[in-house]
Specification:
Helix content: 40-55%
Oligomer: single chain
CATH topology of the largest domain: Rossmann fold
Pfam family, one: Peripla_BP_6
Keywords: Amino-acid transport, Signal, Transport
Family: Belongs to the leucine-binding protein family.
Number of helices: 15
Number of domains: 2
Distance between the termini: 30 Å
CATH architecture of the largest domain: 3-Layer(aba) Sandwich
Protein name: ABC transporter substrate-binding protein
CATH superfamily of the largest domain: Response regulator
Radius of gyration: 21 Å
Mean pLDDT: 91
Order of helices and strands: HHEHEHEHEEHEHEHEHEHHEHHHEEEEH
Largest sheet: 7 strands, mixed
Length: 403
């Protein structure tokens, strides 16, 4: 943990500890955590879990919150919407946790959002990127916040890269049949329409497919110049393998699931080489904050390869942002108090992904802006910055512009 941040947490705890002594000695502050810790989404789900665990471990090491240790109450949603909703009901209605960090899969999140909204329970989303997650309810009324980039930004970023920067106009969209794929298809199509374009080819497929040969051949025959795939890790692997096997040469783009370690494991280095994806963070050993985080992460998780750096770092930052809000409310963890604090955060948090300075407002519950995104690429089995100039500027912190 950053020494200055650790010292600040310790000082805040000490300053308020006397006032809260009776409460602080009672019970741990219980925090809900929901994610896909088993099944096909387990690679990035467990990265998020390890990231959240590491944050809690480090916070507790410097005194917790007002002397109260944080305790994660973990529920596995298995990437199944109905399971995710039951987990939300359990944490909010039965366990009555103070707040919840949760959801990696958009379809699972959408099924459970009303549990948090109707009970005025603060939900911080560390991974799920579906645009609808933070737009289902108007931000002024919503208790749903997110520290991952919404797919609307991913679509803007990718189409700007493909059409505006590379001057490619025949774009194929590969989207699974989940809410995540549906939302991505909608966002990408809208961005193309702004430029007077339509998708040159659209492929829809269910989760669980192991081959997309037929669709790749059809895209090739349609003369597509670029492919964008909206799906999760196993199906991203199927897409890049099929692209290689049918001799499809069009550049391959995707949002963050293409960066999952399982894609490399399931597809192989040759299939992923050169494919590109949207990232909020890229492993950079020259960035002290990120290098330190990774060293601590691997020590805590005992993993040899991280499933998703984005999931881990965003979940870690999500816990710390909630701690910032708790100090600001002086321990009031009602949904209204936390919502007000997050929308008017008084102190910047120097996180792993970025420095969060007024990340939310009453009109915007997404912490990530388009200027905070990077284009990553698979190169020799590692995710690197696609553009060399981005690698050179990696030490520059991209903050959300205050509006």
């Amino acid at each position: 943990m950053n020494i200055c941040r650790a010292n600040w947490i310790a000082r805040c705890s000490a300053a308020l500890l006397l006032t809260w002594c009776a409460v602080s000695q009672a019970q741990p502050l219980r925090v809900g955590l929901i994610g896909p810790f088993s099944g096909g989404s387990g690679d990035f789900g467990n990265s998020a879990r390890f990231g959240a665990e590491l944050a809690v471990k480090e916070i507790n090491a410097v005194g917790g919150f007002l002397g109260r240790p944080l305790e994660l109450v973990v529920r596995d949603d298995q990437a199944v919407p109905d399971v995710g909703r039951r987990a939300a009901e359990d944490l909010v209605l039965k366990e009555k946790v103070a707040f919840t960090i949760g959801f990696c899969n958009t379809g699972v999140a959408m099924k459970a959002l009303d549990v948090f909204q109707q009970n005025k329970h603060l939900l911080m989303v560390p991974c799920s990127q579906g645009t609808a997650v933070t737009t289902k309810y108007p931000p002024a009324e919503s208790y749903i916040f997110r520290i991952a980039p919404p797919d609307l930004l991913n679509a803007k970023f990718l189409i700007a890269e493909i059409v505006d920067r590379r001057k490619l106009s025949r774009v194929a969209i590969f989207a699974d049949q989940t809410g995540y794929g549906e939302g991505g298809l909608k966002d990408l199509t809208a961005e193309l329409e702004k430029r007077g374009l339509k998708p040159a080819y659209i492929a829809r497929f269910p989760l669980g497919v192991t081959s997309l040969h037929e669709q790749m051949r059809a895209a090739r025959d349609a003369g597509v110049e670029a492919i964008v795939a909206y799906t999760v890790g196993p199906e991203q692997a199927a897409a890049v393998k099929s692209r290689l096997e049918v001799g499809m040469n069009a550049p391959f783009f995707a949002p963050w699931p293409l960066s999952f370690g399982s894609v490399l494991e399931n597809a192989g280095a040759a299939a992923v080489e050169g494919t590109m994806m949207v990232q909020t963070i890229v492993q950079d050993n020259f960035n002290e904050r990120r290098a330190s985080f990774l060293a601590r992460y691997f020590k805590h998780s005992n993993e040899k390869r991280i499933g998703s750096l984005m999931a881990a770092a965003q979940a870690y930052d999500a816990v710390h942002l909630m701690l910032w809000a708790l100090f600001q409310t002086k321990g009031d963890y009602s949904g209204d108090a936390l919502k007000q604090a997050l929308e008017n955060l008084e102190r910047p948090y120097q996180g792993v992904v970025t420095t969060y300075s007024q990340p939310f407002t009453s009109a915007d519950h997404d912490a990530i802006a388009i200027n905070m995104l990077w284009l990553g690429a698979w190169r020799k089995g590692q995710i690197e910055y696609y553009y060399r100039e981005d690698a050179k500027r990696a030490g520059y912190v991209r903050r959300k512009e205050v509006r």
